[in-house]
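User: structure tokens for this one?
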Amino acid sequence: MNFPERVYTKDEVKKARELIENGYKHDLKAKGSPQFVAKVEEALKLIKTAGYYEFLRTYIRVIREIEGLSQLREQEAAIWFHVKALDDPVDDAGFMIQKAQQMKDFIEGRLYYETAEIRAVNKRIEFLEALRDKTDDPAIKSKCKQQLKRWKEQPFP
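Assistant:
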């Protein structure tokens, strides 16, 4: 059974959820300029180091270069990323994990309003902690610590 081309209608979401529950994983692709693909690959390497690549490719099919705002496109199971937004591999990887969590919530039918952003930020924090603990690169460890401090200081109402 193939993953639906789009994940928009009730039936498409149901099919996507059933496939994921049965172990489906996307063949994750980065689509865009060579510079964009190289930056995405750098972030994906960190995601693999932290042990989150399978999580990412469960929910995200493609990371696509765009001219507008970086965002999750649920109906495409895609992350749209502006190449100029890709300037820090640790931050870029965290953004991808945060969007994958939002896609997971969408497929599971969880409401976005009120608690979804908190779940997505918490997933990003969890990822940063795992990357900090698993990497051997002192510069990556340092960036993780800086970002963890910043994300944990963010007040939520």
